[in-house]
Amino acid sequence: MDPLDAEILERIAGFDPPPPDLDERVLFALALGSLEAEVAHLAEQSMAGSGARSTGERTRTITFDADSRSVMITVVERPDNLVRIDGWLAPGAALRVDLRQPEPAPVRTATADATGRFVIDEVPHGLAQLLVHGDPRVVTPSLVL
Amino acid sequence: MSDVRLGTLLERARDGDRESLQELVRELNPVLWRVARGQGLNAEDAADVVQTSWLELLRRLHEIRTPRAVTGWLITATRREAWQRRHRTRRDGPAGALALDGVADPGPPVDQRLLTDERDRVLWTHFARLSQRCRDLLGIVAQVTRPDYSAIAEAYGMPHGSIGPTRGRCLAKLREMLLADPAWGA
Asked: What does the sequence similarity comment in the record state about its family (chain B) (predicted)?
């Protein structure tokens, strides 16, 4: 390849490069031991509250859809720099829900009530992934809390 | 990296070798990122779509009979997921009215203000004038040293054997515009 073509392609490759943490996020999502699970796709994301009300609660609501089930979570900022996750499975069922974070953080587990509601509290910020133990199991992509 | 090498990495990953999987991810992520961005997604959605494609790949590993086809499989999955994401965002989002514009070309998703190098800025101006197909193609081949043309052809519904010549034409056009522009210099 002549030097001009090489320069052009090199510069084009530098336009809009992937975010530096993309590999890390993908590898974290894939690190789940077994992947015999349905993949839930991010369907919707919205923010509530504002930075102006610094004393108020800032929340983010994220919905993931899989064929068998939807998982909606609201991430609530706590004053101590941790977050609380209020979740809802639809259709509702009393299922176990795991929240994975990068090691060495332990897997956090909650059990939804019959209507599908669950809460996982005192969660540190960072990468996280949810696994719902239904039949089939449902796994979300990694998200940044 | 050759498709045979990628196929070998996939087979090793299938046998549980984490290092092969990591190598595969590092090698193909830039291409998949380009594919998702080429569909007009914002950075957050594009990152999400890329990892969803990988999760789907791992879930369907046993269905993949020709491991060397992994690049094409992932590009296709990423394009499909990106298209669906954009479709959903337009329908549900506050900007839902934009859907009335139909298949509006989202344009190349680069913030020109971020380009501080003068030659980059000049190149960008001309690059943006190329057809969507040229931008997609050059954006992808720029990410890999030895691009797998047949995988790209398949994923983009272009005839096999046309990728090389199309790439050549796109690059020639860009060269011509650059060399005619005094701001590019010699």
From this structure: Belongs to the sigma-70 factor family. ECF subfamily.
User: B58 with B104: CB under 8 angstroms?
Assistant: no
CA nearest B138: which of B121, B152, B159, B154?
A: B152
Whether A64 is in a domain gets the answer yes
In-domain check, residue A49: yes
Using a CB-CB cut-off of 8 Å, the residues of chain A touching B142 are 9-10, 12-13
Nearest-by-CA chain B residue for A40: B52
What phi, psi does B151 have (nearest 5°)?
Answer: -65, -40
pLDDT band (50, 70, 90) for residue B6: confident
Residue B185: inside a domain: no
- Asked whether the beta carbons of A101 and A126 are under 8 A apart, the reply is yes
**Residue length, chain B?**
186
Domain count, chain B: 1
The predicted pLDDT at position B106 comes to 47
Closest by Cβ to B52, choosing from A16, A17, A141: A141
Q: Find the domain containing A120 and state its range.
A: 39-144
Is B10 inside a domain boundary? yes
- Angle of helix B118-127 versus helix B163-179 axis, rounded to 10: 120
Write out the residue range of the structural domain in which residue B167 sits.
3-179
What's the total number of domains in chain A? 1
Interface test with B, best of A39, A130, A145 (most B CBs within 10 A): A39
Q: Flag whether B184 is in a domain.
A: no
Is A92 a domain residue? yes
CA distance A15 to chain B (A): 7
Q: Looking at the partner chain, which of A12, A16, A26 has a beta carbon nearest the beta carbon of B37?
A: A16
pLDDT in tens, B60-76: 887 887 877 888 899 99
Instruction: Give domain status of residue A91, yes or no.
Output: yes
* Cβ separation B81–A9 shorter than 8 A: no
